[in-house]
Design a protein that fits this description.
It is a single chain. With 121 residues, the chain is an all-alpha fold. The relative contact order is 0.03. The protein is built from 5 helices and no strands. The longest helix has 19 residues.
Length: 121
């Protein structure tokens, strides 16, 4: 019986050791080779050369806004559109005829109760 237990324990150790052995030398070698090749492509300058060729091709194209006056006109039209969207009256100044929002007196107990009620809802 004890010989059987010893044999079972030895077999389980052998199984665990075999499972932990991992990849073979050829598998490791192929993994290292593939990683090395991919890193070599990134560092040899192929990507840099590709980016340089793209920049050279774009160098001859005309600019969207060639002079200062065109840039100023574009900025002016964009600003006017933004003002029109934010302020329907078209006035860049604040309309002072509108009343200011009334601030609640937070020291008043009734206001404190109302604020607490709003916070819990």
């Amino acid at each position: 019986m004890s010989k059987l237990l010893v044999a079972l324990i030895a077999a389980s150790f052998a199984t665990v050791a075999g499972a932990q052995a991992g990849a073979t030398a050829k598998e490791k070698q192929s993994t290292v080779k593939s990683v090395t090749e991919s890193q070599a492509k990134e560092t040899t300058g192929a990507a840099t050369a590709e980016g340089a060729a793209k920049a050279k091709a774009m160098k001859g194209t005309a600019k969207a806004l060639p002079d200062k006056a065109a840039k100023q006109a574009a900025v002016k039209s964009t600003t006017a559109a933004a003002v029109a969207a934010d302020n329907p009256t078209g006035s860049p100044k604040v309309d002072k005829s509108l009343p200011k929002a009334v601030k609640p007196n937070l020291r008043d107990p009734a206001v404190q109760k109302e604020e607490a009620k709003k916070a819990t809802q």
